[in-house]
Amino acid sequence: MTTIDQIDRTRIPQHVAIIMDGNGRWAMRQQHERIFGHQSAITAVRHAVEAAVQLEVKYLTLYTFSTENWNRPQAEVDGLMELLIKAVLDETKTLMDNNVRLRMIGDMQRIPERSRTTLQRCIDQTAGNTATTLILALSYSSRWEIAEALKRICREGLDPLLVDEETLRHYLTTAEYPDPDLLIRTGGELRISNFLLWQMAYTELYFSDQLWPDFRHEDFYAAIFDYQGRQRRFGKTEAQVEGK
Protein backbone atom coordinates (compact mmCIF):
# COMPACT_ATOMS: atom_id res chain seq x y z
CA MET A 1 0.00 0.00 0.00
CA THR A 2 1.41 3.38 -1.02
CA THR A 3 1.50 6.03 1.69
CA ILE A 4 1.66 9.79 1.39
CA ASP A 5 5.18 9.73 2.87
CA GLN A 6 6.43 7.95 -0.27
CA ILE A 7 5.41 10.86 -2.49
CA ASP A 8 8.05 13.34 -3.69
CA ARG A 9 6.41 16.70 -3.00
CA THR A 10 8.65 18.41 -5.56
CA ARG A 11 7.24 16.34 -8.46
CA ILE A 12 3.48 16.59 -8.01
CA PRO A 13 1.45 16.67 -11.25
CA GLN A 14 -0.29 19.99 -11.71
CA HIS A 15 -3.41 18.46 -13.25
CA VAL A 16 -4.85 14.97 -12.66
CA ALA A 17 -7.85 13.64 -14.60
CA ILE A 18 -9.85 10.58 -13.56
CA ILE A 19 -12.21 8.29 -15.44
CA MET A 20 -14.31 6.91 -12.59
CA ASP A 21 -15.24 3.50 -13.95
CA GLY A 22 -16.79 0.44 -12.33
CA ASN A 23 -19.80 1.74 -10.39
CA GLY A 24 -22.31 -0.56 -12.06
CA ARG A 25 -20.15 -3.67 -11.81
CA TRP A 26 -19.42 -2.90 -8.15
CA ALA A 27 -23.15 -2.62 -7.41
CA MET A 28 -23.95 -5.89 -9.17
CA ARG A 29 -21.26 -7.66 -7.15
CA GLN A 30 -23.03 -6.35 -4.05
CA GLN A 31 -26.32 -7.67 -5.54
CA HIS A 32 -27.75 -4.15 -5.85
CA GLU A 33 -29.08 -2.03 -8.69
CA ARG A 34 -26.56 0.04 -10.68
CA ILE A 35 -27.68 3.30 -9.04
CA PHE A 36 -26.38 1.96 -5.71
CA GLY A 37 -22.90 1.92 -7.23
CA HIS A 38 -23.24 5.55 -8.28
CA GLN A 39 -24.39 6.48 -4.78
CA SER A 40 -21.43 4.66 -3.23
CA ALA A 41 -19.06 6.41 -5.66
CA ILE A 42 -19.48 9.72 -3.81
CA THR A 43 -17.24 8.47 -1.01
CA ALA A 44 -14.52 7.72 -3.56
CA VAL A 45 -14.86 11.22 -5.01
CA ARG A 46 -14.39 12.67 -1.53
CA HIS A 47 -11.23 10.61 -1.02
CA ALA A 48 -9.80 11.66 -4.40
CA VAL A 49 -10.49 15.34 -3.74
CA GLU A 50 -9.00 15.20 -0.25
CA ALA A 51 -5.88 13.41 -1.53
CA ALA A 52 -5.47 15.99 -4.30
CA VAL A 53 -5.69 18.79 -1.74
CA GLN A 54 -3.19 17.06 0.56
CA LEU A 55 -0.67 16.75 -2.30
CA GLU A 56 -1.40 20.27 -3.59
CA VAL A 57 -2.60 19.10 -6.99
CA LYS A 58 -3.91 22.31 -8.55
CA TYR A 59 -6.51 20.80 -10.91
CA LEU A 60 -8.56 17.61 -10.62
CA THR A 61 -10.94 16.75 -13.48
CA LEU A 62 -13.51 13.98 -12.98
CA TYR A 63 -15.33 12.37 -15.92
CA THR A 64 -18.73 12.53 -14.29
CA PHE A 65 -21.21 11.99 -17.14
CA SER A 66 -20.46 11.68 -20.85
CA THR A 67 -22.64 12.72 -23.77
CA GLU A 68 -22.91 8.99 -24.56
CA ASN A 69 -24.33 8.36 -21.09
CA TRP A 70 -27.57 10.08 -22.16
CA ASN A 71 -28.26 6.83 -24.08
CA ARG A 72 -28.49 4.80 -20.87
CA PRO A 73 -31.92 3.68 -19.58
CA GLN A 74 -33.98 6.75 -18.65
CA ALA A 75 -34.46 5.58 -15.07
CA GLU A 76 -30.69 5.43 -14.58
CA VAL A 77 -30.17 8.87 -16.17
CA ASP A 78 -32.90 10.40 -13.98
CA GLY A 79 -31.39 8.75 -10.92
CA LEU A 80 -27.94 10.13 -11.78
CA MET A 81 -29.28 13.66 -12.18
CA GLU A 82 -31.02 13.47 -8.81
CA LEU A 83 -27.88 12.00 -7.27
CA LEU A 84 -25.85 14.85 -8.73
CA ILE A 85 -28.07 17.40 -6.96
CA LYS A 86 -27.83 15.57 -3.65
CA ALA A 87 -24.07 15.10 -3.93
CA VAL A 88 -23.43 18.76 -4.67
CA LEU A 89 -25.65 19.88 -1.79
CA ASP A 90 -24.05 17.40 0.61
CA GLU A 91 -20.46 18.06 -0.46
CA THR A 92 -20.44 21.86 -0.72
CA LYS A 93 -19.34 22.19 2.91
CA THR A 94 -16.54 19.68 2.33
CA LEU A 95 -15.37 21.70 -0.67
CA MET A 96 -15.40 24.86 1.40
CA ASP A 97 -13.57 23.19 4.30
CA ASN A 98 -10.87 21.97 1.88
CA ASN A 99 -10.61 25.31 0.02
CA VAL A 100 -11.69 23.64 -3.24
CA ARG A 101 -13.15 25.57 -6.17
CA LEU A 102 -15.80 23.80 -8.29
CA ARG A 103 -15.98 24.28 -12.06
CA MET A 104 -17.71 22.45 -14.95
CA ILE A 105 -17.03 21.58 -18.56
CA GLY A 106 -19.53 20.07 -20.99
CA ASP A 107 -22.86 20.67 -22.70
CA MET A 108 -24.76 22.37 -19.88
CA GLN A 109 -27.84 22.88 -22.07
CA ARG A 110 -28.66 19.18 -21.78
CA ILE A 111 -28.52 19.19 -17.98
CA PRO A 112 -31.95 19.56 -16.30
CA GLU A 113 -32.54 23.09 -15.03
CA ARG A 114 -32.78 22.03 -11.38
CA SER A 115 -29.39 20.31 -11.59
CA ARG A 116 -27.81 23.29 -13.38
CA THR A 117 -29.13 25.67 -10.73
CA THR A 118 -27.74 23.57 -7.89
CA LEU A 119 -24.37 23.25 -9.58
CA GLN A 120 -24.16 26.96 -10.33
CA ARG A 121 -24.93 27.78 -6.71
CA CYS A 122 -22.00 25.63 -5.58
CA ILE A 123 -19.73 27.10 -8.26
CA ASP A 124 -20.57 30.60 -7.06
CA GLN A 125 -20.12 29.68 -3.40
CA THR A 126 -16.69 28.10 -3.95
CA ALA A 127 -15.42 30.65 -6.50
CA GLY A 128 -12.98 32.24 -4.08
CA ASN A 129 -11.31 29.01 -2.98
CA THR A 130 -7.66 28.65 -3.96
CA ALA A 131 -6.33 25.17 -3.11
CA THR A 132 -7.53 22.73 -5.78
CA THR A 133 -9.89 23.37 -8.69
CA LEU A 134 -12.31 20.45 -9.06
CA ILE A 135 -13.60 20.28 -12.64
CA LEU A 136 -16.64 18.11 -13.33
CA ALA A 137 -16.81 16.90 -16.93
CA LEU A 138 -20.58 16.70 -17.17
CA SER A 139 -22.51 15.94 -20.36
CA TYR A 140 -19.06 16.01 -21.92
CA SER A 141 -17.24 14.19 -24.69
CA SER A 142 -14.09 15.20 -26.49
CA ARG A 143 -15.49 14.84 -29.99
CA TRP A 144 -18.44 17.05 -29.00
CA GLU A 145 -16.02 19.61 -27.56
CA ILE A 146 -13.83 19.74 -30.66
CA ALA A 147 -16.86 19.98 -32.97
CA GLU A 148 -18.25 22.85 -30.88
CA ALA A 149 -14.90 24.63 -30.99
CA LEU A 150 -14.82 24.37 -34.78
CA LYS A 151 -18.39 25.69 -35.03
CA ARG A 152 -17.43 28.75 -32.97
CA ILE A 153 -14.35 29.35 -35.13
CA CYS A 154 -16.52 29.21 -38.26
CA ARG A 155 -19.21 31.47 -36.79
CA GLU A 156 -16.61 34.08 -35.90
CA GLY A 157 -15.23 34.02 -39.44
CA LEU A 158 -11.60 33.30 -38.62
CA ASP A 159 -9.25 32.93 -41.56
CA PRO A 160 -8.63 29.16 -41.87
CA LEU A 161 -4.99 29.81 -42.74
CA LEU A 162 -4.51 31.48 -39.37
CA VAL A 163 -6.06 28.67 -37.34
CA ASP A 164 -3.32 26.74 -35.53
CA GLU A 165 -3.09 24.56 -32.40
CA GLU A 166 -3.20 27.52 -30.05
CA THR A 167 -6.27 28.92 -31.81
CA LEU A 168 -8.16 25.67 -31.36
CA ARG A 169 -7.00 25.36 -27.74
CA HIS A 170 -8.49 28.80 -27.05
CA TYR A 171 -11.93 27.58 -28.19
CA LEU A 172 -11.97 24.39 -26.11
CA THR A 173 -13.95 24.23 -22.87
CA THR A 174 -10.66 23.65 -21.03
CA ALA A 175 -8.97 26.79 -22.40
CA GLU A 176 -8.24 28.22 -18.95
CA TYR A 177 -6.75 25.00 -17.55
CA PRO A 178 -3.41 23.26 -18.20
CA ASP A 179 -3.47 19.90 -19.96
CA PRO A 180 -3.60 16.87 -17.62
CA ASP A 181 -0.24 15.50 -16.56
CA LEU A 182 -1.78 12.23 -15.39
CA LEU A 183 -4.92 10.28 -16.24
CA ILE A 184 -6.19 7.67 -13.78
CA ARG A 185 -8.76 5.16 -14.97
CA THR A 186 -10.30 2.67 -12.56
CA GLY A 187 -12.30 -0.46 -13.36
CA GLY A 188 -9.69 -2.36 -15.36
CA GLU A 189 -10.61 -1.00 -18.79
CA LEU A 190 -7.70 0.12 -21.01
CA ARG A 191 -9.17 3.02 -23.00
CA ILE A 192 -9.83 6.75 -22.60
CA SER A 193 -13.46 6.75 -23.76
CA ASN A 194 -13.72 10.05 -25.64
CA PHE A 195 -12.29 12.02 -22.71
CA LEU A 196 -9.99 15.04 -23.21
CA LEU A 197 -8.57 13.60 -26.44
CA TRP A 198 -6.92 16.86 -27.52
CA GLN A 199 -5.65 17.70 -24.05
CA MET A 200 -4.14 14.27 -23.35
CA ALA A 201 -1.68 14.21 -26.24
CA TYR A 202 1.21 13.84 -23.75
CA THR A 203 -0.62 12.77 -20.60
CA GLU A 204 0.76 9.84 -18.60
CA LEU A 205 -1.84 7.05 -18.34
CA TYR A 206 -2.42 4.96 -15.22
CA PHE A 207 -4.92 2.08 -15.24
CA SER A 208 -6.20 0.42 -12.08
CA ASP A 209 -8.29 -2.72 -11.62
CA GLN A 210 -9.90 -1.10 -8.57
CA LEU A 211 -13.62 -0.43 -9.10
CA TRP A 212 -14.34 3.23 -8.47
CA PRO A 213 -16.51 2.93 -5.31
CA ASP A 214 -13.53 1.22 -3.59
CA PHE A 215 -11.08 4.00 -4.54
CA ARG A 216 -9.41 5.62 -1.52
CA HIS A 217 -6.60 8.06 -0.65
CA GLU A 218 -4.01 5.29 -0.95
CA ASP A 219 -5.08 4.52 -4.51
CA PHE A 220 -4.56 8.16 -5.46
CA TYR A 221 -1.12 8.10 -3.81
CA ALA A 222 -0.25 4.91 -5.74
CA ALA A 223 -1.06 6.60 -9.06
CA ILE A 224 1.04 9.65 -8.17
CA PHE A 225 3.92 7.43 -7.02
CA ASP A 226 3.81 5.52 -10.31
CA TYR A 227 3.73 8.80 -12.26
CA GLN A 228 6.82 10.02 -10.43
CA GLY A 229 8.75 6.99 -11.65
CA ARG A 230 8.31 8.01 -15.29
CA GLN A 231 10.33 10.38 -17.46
CA ARG A 232 8.25 12.82 -19.50
CA ARG A 233 10.10 13.62 -22.73
CA PHE A 234 7.46 15.39 -24.89
CA GLY A 235 9.15 14.13 -28.08
CA LYS A 236 12.71 14.85 -26.94
CA THR A 237 15.42 12.25 -26.38
CA GLU A 238 16.30 11.02 -22.92
CA ALA A 239 19.65 12.82 -23.15
CA GLN A 240 17.94 16.10 -24.01
CA VAL A 241 15.60 15.82 -21.05
CA GLU A 242 18.50 15.09 -18.73
CA GLY A 243 20.49 18.01 -20.15
CA LYS A 244 23.38 15.88 -21.45
What characterizes the major β-sheet? 6 strands, parallel
Rg value: 18 Å
Alpha plus pi helix count: 8
Helix content: 40-55%
Mean of the pLDDT scores?
93
Low-pLDDT stretches:
none
What class, by secondary structure content?
A: alpha/beta
First and last CA, distance:
35 Å
Taken from the alpha-carbon principal axes, the silhouette is globular
Which band does the percent of strand residues land in? 5-15%
Identify the strand order in the major beta sheet.
3-4-2-1-5-6
Number of extended strands: 6
Order of helices and strands: EHHEHEHEHHEEHH
What can you tell me about this protein's structure?
42% of the residues lie in helices and 15% in strands. It has a 6-stranded parallel β-sheet, with helices on both faces. Helix 3 packs parallel to helix 4.
Itemize the secondary structure elements and their pairings.
Elements: E1 15-19, H1 23-29, H2 34-54, E2 59-66, H3 74-97, E3 100-105, H4 113-125, E4 132-140, H5 142-155, H6 165-171, E5 182-185, E6 204-207, H7 217-228, H8 238-241
Parallel strand pairs: 1-2, 1-5, 2-4, 3-4, 5-6
Helix pairs in contact: 1-2, 2-3, 2-7, 3-4
